[in-house]
Amino acid sequence: MFFHPLDILIFAALGLALWAQLKVKGNFQKWSKVGAFSNVTGAQVARYILDKEGLDHVKVERSKNGTLSDHYDPRAKTVRLSDLVFQGRSISALAVAAHEVGHALQDQHNYSMLVIRHRLFPLASIGSQLAPWLFISGFILGLTHLIGVGILLFSGAVLFQVVTLPVEFDASKRAKNKLLQLGLIQSQEEKGIAQVLNAAALTYVASTLMAVLQLIKFIMIFRNRR
């Protein structure tokens, strides 16, 4: 059986994404067993950094969606942390909590890529839901224009993922800087913080790469059918 080179790249990207997910869980579990010298919880770290940055109006809450469901909600101005991060006193807990606060800092300073990401979200949400159905309908019914519309919508979702990359990397950079500047970690703890955050960043890189390759494949199919 002959595989197109693009298909091989897509499978490789899928493998990278799966490996990245395992890497995230592995590094989180590894460093969740290592207590930070400051002996404070993720929730306390988040609150401390926010207050130091004049963001006392931003709330810190427990996330109700389970492990690794940590996120910053820009509409509610709330940092939500999973139980292991909220109450944890480990390197992992501090890394994840500070990363989510990094998004709040981006929001405070109107970080350009975050603003673009917010504006793209409605299009990306619609595109990710409708595009597969348009692709399937277009192929079954032989309606090329439906495939074209699906590609346009899927492009919005892919662009959202591309823009997400600098947003996530910047949040991690802010997190590491604030943890050090405020004396919440020691220099020898930087390695653990970096491993946790870099593994998480790799998942975004892998998923974005796979989405871009899929988009290219759909465009090639569209051109061939025309």
**Tally the helices: what do you get?**
7
Tell me roughly what share of residues is in helical segments: over 70%
β content, as a range?
under 5%
Low-confidence stretches: none
Radius of gyration: 20 Å
Largest sheet, order of strands side by side?
1-3-2
What structural category arises from helix and sheet content? Answer: mainly alpha
What gross morphology would you assign? Answer: elongated
Keywords: Membrane, Transmembrane, Transmembrane helix
Protein name: Zinc metallopeptidase
Transmembrane segments: 6-24, 133-160, 201-222
Description of the structure:
The protein is mainly alpha-helical. It has a domain at 5-34 and 99-225. Helix content is 73%, strand content 5%. The chain contains seven helices and three strands; from the N terminus they run H-H-E-E-E-H-H-H-H-H. The protein has helices spanning 5-32, 42-52, 83-86, 91-108, 112-141, 144-181, 190-225, and strands at 59-62, 71-73, 78-81. It has a three-stranded mixed β-sheet with strand order 1-3-2. Strand 2 and strand 3 (78-81) form a beta hairpin.
